[in-house]
Structures are given as structure tokens and as C-alpha cells.
Write a structure and sequence with these properties.
InterPro entries: CheY-like_superfamily, RNA_pol_sigma70_r4_t2, Sig_transdc_resp-reg_C-effctor, Sig_transdc_resp-reg_receiver, Tscrpt_reg_LuxR_C, WalR-like. With 212 residues, the protein is α/β, with parallel strands linked by helices. The protein has ten helices and five strands.
Amino acid sequence: MAAVIRVAAVDDDRMLLDGLANWVAGVPDLRLVGTGATVGELLRQVVVPVDVVLLDLVLRDRSDAAENVRRLTALGCRVLVLSVWAQPDQVVATFAAGAGGYVTKDHDLAALAVAIRQVHAGQPVFSTELAFACLRDTRPVRPQLSPRERAVLLAYASGMTLKQAARHLGIRPETARTYLDRVKAKYHDLGRPTRTKLDLAERVREDQLEAG
């Protein structure tokens, strides 16, 4: 007998979650262990390990889909992203963040069960929508930073405080902050969040940035 896959779902459609619970109850190798309208709500409620999380691409709390994927995969969950329609940039960003699959909600339940099993087995789930999204993805791998943005990033990530970086570059601290915020925003838009100094230092290392 196949091992039971523990499934959880994050969606703000209550009727969909109720219907999902009824459907999973009739599938021998799937067990629904928790649901939530947000990732935070799910994590507060689930007390057992989760194998696969079904994650709605667009939630009412306006949380970032890629960040939701990162939160879940960091806990060891595999993620299957669901959506009413394909949104190319967001879909590609979720895969870059670690999602294992993506399907639109117009697929039938049998197809969803197959996708869950594939994601659980570590097999990526590709669809026509995903292929279309990847073909249309024109995002650069690295953000385009201005010379001043790069200078502030390198100074700050090297270990300087923001005030020290500003003094080093001969600019005001609030100006340095503005440049740093722009750097963070550009990385975030590429699905590469940089909230902390350690994150920034890691991006400098990954992108092999040098003073120019």
C-alpha cells in the first residue's frame, strides 16, 4: 500500500477548502492535515508534519507568492501552486523560490491528485501555462544597479554601518538609505529578497559584484 501523503492547503476560498476536505477524504493515499487562509494561519494551526502544501497564488492578504513558497519550503514542505489563471511573472518567481509545481484550478481532481503525488516524489509538475510563463520570462538574473546603488551596497555589505557607508561615499545617511532601499526593491522584484545585511552580503557574493 502506498504511503499516505500529508497535504495542507492555503486558500482564502472557504468553499474550496471545504470541498477539498470532502474530496481528499475519498482518496486513500492523501490525507488533509490542515488548511488556512494565509500561510501564517496554516503554520499556527498545523501540529503534524506536512508533505505537500497546496498554495493559492494570489491571496487576499496580498502576501508575496514567492515569499510564501520560501516560508513553506524552509520548513521542509513541498509546494504545489494553484491559481485561477496563469500570471507569468508570479508563476516563474514561485518556481525560482522553490515551488515544485503549478497547476490552474480548472484541472479536475484526478489531475490534482496526480500533481500532488508527483510533487511529493520530487518530480516537477509542468503545465502548458508554466511553459508559456517561462518562455515569456524576460527578467534579468541580476538587478540593474546604478553606480551609486552599487557603491552603497558594496560599502554596507562589507560591514560598514549605513552612516559609515554614507561618510565613505561622501553622501548624507538618508541618501544612502534611499539607495539601499532601491537595491532591496530591485532584488525583491527578481524574487531574491534582501532584508538583512547578511542577505545583501550573500547577493554580493552570488553576483560577484565588485567596485566599479
